[in-house]
UniProtKB/TrEMBL annotation:
It comes from Camellia lanceoleosa. This is Dirigent protein 19.
Length: 108
């Protein structure tokens, strides 16, 4: 389960604009591939109260991973698009990581 800060830049001192909430599970026997089910729940500015939903495969050791945006709520109703995920830092001892998500989305 995840409930992590969603910030403007890939560091914890950046302004928080929401939460990344959902879960991931191991989905591959050959490599580290995860099934990601995640909502970006916005709590600031124009998008306050809106969400984007991501569902897809995350090949963790690929430098840039792409996953689909399958929907959203409020200002992101009928959203479609994709996110590109890039790992900035990872601590293999604690399992903590800082991931940058660039979101490309079309919505009404």
């Amino acid at each position: 389960m995840i409930d992590d800060p969603l910030t403007l830049a890939p560091n914890l001192i950046s302004k928080m604009v929401g939460r990344a909430q959902g879960f991931y599970a191991s989905a591959s026997q050959q490599d580290l591939g995860l099934l990601m089910v995640m909502n970006f729940a916005f709590s600031e500015g124009k998008y306050n109260g809106s969400t984007l939903t991501v569902l897809g495969r995350n090949s963790v050791f690929t430098p840039v991973r792409e996953m689909p945006v399958i929907g959203g709520s409020e200002l992101f109703r009928f959203a479609r698009g994709y996110v590109q995920a890039k790992t900035h830092t990872v601590d293999l001892t604690t399992g903590d990581a800082c991931i940058e998500y660039n979101v490309y989305v079309m919505h009404y």
